[in-house]
Amino acid sequence: MMAVDIAGIGELIMFALVSTLTIIFSILVVTAKDVVRASLSLIVTLVSVAGIYVLLNAQFIGMVQILIYVGGIGVLILFAVMLTTQELKGGSDD
């Protein structure tokens, strides 16, 4: 009989959860109608990809993923969205 490896099962469950999170939020990036929601979904997707790297024992690549992509590109997208001028959809009372 084969002994049940509890650590292996836990690692498999964590991988399934993180990969499901990655797939769901990557679909939300593509289908979001609001740019702010799409960029926040992109940040969650990039963090979950870093989690997959950590689960695969590539901690350095996971930390680089967080520092460069989430820290740099995610903040850049959010600042670009927040600093652009948008007209309000409601009518003005002037």
List the helices and strands and how they pair.
Layout: H1 6-31, H2 35-55, H3 59-83
Describe this structure in words.
The chain has a domain of 64 residues: NADH-ubiquinone/plastoquinone oxidoreductase chain 6, subunit NuoJ (Four Helix Bundle (Hemerythrin (Met), subunit A), Up-down Bundle). α1 runs antiparallel to α2. It has 94 residues and is an all-alpha fold. It has three helices and no strands. The model has no long low-confidence stretch (mean pLDDT 85). The chain is 77% helix and 0% strand.
CATH architecture of the domain at 18-81: Up-down Bundle
What is Rg? 19 Å
Write the element-wise H/E pattern from the N-terminal end onward.
Answer: HHH
For the biggest sheet, the summary is: none
The unreliable regions are none
Features:
94 residues; mainly alpha; Four Helix Bundle (Hemerythrin (Met), subunit A); elongated
Brief digest:
This protein has three helices and no strands. By secondary structure, it is mostly helical. The N and C termini lie far apart (80 Å).
